[in-house]
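Consider the tokenized backbone below.
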């Protein structure tokens, strides 16, 4: 069994639920560097995802961590297959609302109430897509890490252009696709090529990709029965360490 909270089936989260204006959030840790954990379609709840344990895990590395409930009390049922209902369900919270949650609520809260010096974005699946949108605003966050990112949401759900979205990113990104993620998101694919061609020097020089071909989409936070399997522990541990190194490299202390 791994010592990492997110890989312990019986782990009890240690953070607290707070309100940031009208937005519920999970808060844990302390420090001058803060991370926003953007959940996947399974939301922020303690019974549908391992995201709270993952927040605690990040906080143990010296970060203040916040996970907003971007879906406002709803989440995709953990055992329900992804189907045609997902797109209209996701569209019930518009992009404009999500960006306002980030730029007018969560990021100011961290800076004003906790006096943090830098903020990083940790996005899981759908949360990785949102991280790219937030990173289009210069100075919003210092860097971002996307675990098996669902960047195709930009076109599939929100009607945008994915490459245009990536071209607008203003800070370094670390992408971690799995074996069944789209080819464009893999090493040598269009996603990393677009980031590496950025007109912003820190993006062009700082973006990285590390693929996990033995893993399937969702392995970092989704509640799955095989979290104690040796290969899942191996790759989840490596992904975590790579992301911590990346955050600490690009965030002011």
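A designed sequence for it:
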């Amino acid at each position: 069994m791994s010592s990492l909270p997110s890989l312990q089936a019986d782990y009890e989260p240690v953070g607290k639920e707070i309100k940031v204006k009208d937005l519920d959030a999970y808060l844990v840790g302390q420090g001058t560097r803060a991370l926003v954990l953007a959940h996947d379609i399974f939301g922020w709840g303690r019974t549908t995802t391992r995201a709270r344990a993952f927040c605690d895990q990040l906080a143990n590395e010296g970060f203040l961590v916040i996970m907003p409930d971007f879906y406002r009390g709803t989440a995709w049922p953990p055992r329900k297959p992804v189907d045609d209902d997902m797109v209209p369900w996701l569209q019930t919270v518009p992009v404009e609302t999500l960006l306002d949650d980030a730029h007018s609520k969560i990021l100011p809260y961290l800076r004003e109430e906790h006096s943090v010096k830098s903020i990083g974005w940790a996005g899981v699946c759908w949360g990785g897509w949102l991280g790219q949108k937030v990173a289009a605003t210069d100075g919003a966050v210092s860097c971002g890490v996307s675990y098996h990112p669902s960047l195709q949401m930009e076109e599939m759900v929100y009607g945008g252009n994915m490459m245009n979205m990536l071209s607008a990113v203003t800070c370094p990104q670390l992408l971690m696709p799995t074996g069944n993620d789209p080819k464009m998101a893999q090493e040598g694919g269009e996603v990393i090529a677009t980031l590496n061609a950025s007109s912003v020097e820190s993006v062009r020089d700082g973006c990285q990709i590390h693929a996990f071909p033995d893993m399937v989409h969702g392995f970092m936070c989704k509640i799955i029965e095989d979290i104690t399997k040796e290969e899942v522990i191996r790759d989840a541990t490596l992904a975590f360490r790579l992301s911590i190194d990346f955050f600490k490299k690009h965030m002011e202390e």
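The chain has one domain: 5-250.
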